[in-house]
Request: fold
Amino acid sequence: MKTLRALLAPLALIAFAAPALADKIPLSDISAYLNSLTTADTDFTQVNADGSVATGKLFIQRPGRARFEYAPPDKSLVLASGGQVAIFDAKSNQAPEQYPLKRTPLNLILASNINLSRAKMVVAHKEDKNATQVVAQDPDHPEYGTIALVFTANPTTLRQWVITDDLGQKTTVILGEMRKGASYKASTFSFEIEARKRGL
Reply:
């Protein structure tokens, strides 16, 4: 499904531009914040390159697990677990498409140790309208694209990201208020259980 693949467009990090209004959040603080997100869940709104909009719920369990649960009538799903990402397309009766997690922007957020100071990872780091923007890429594979993360300060909070894929198409994911520290059943991130539920 094109809109779901856009979510997984290869790796990077953040978004906008304008005159500085306040101090930008240091990369070390952003790295520490992302590393602190052991578990978190939030509502999200996704704006696709074609202008279509989808909503849903995001669950994160670091390292390595995430669930993007799209709201009805869509009922599509993206799962990350075990080093893979699976796309369950609600319009298809086929087995989910799978990709290596390391080739998606989720890898940056879900890695066991996030270090934005790594050479050639961050290609832009600036403050705009009281938000800090960090644009990042996979240092080893810049051809995969970029992901733009937007944070607010006091406390540092991830608010949205913008993925630009290798074709230049952009997908924006806007996050609601994050709830941290919840515990999730293992089935939340299980490819096999989800496939059985869908009769695949």
Q: What stands out?
A: The longest strand covers residues 39-47. DSSP finds four helices and 13 strands in the chain.
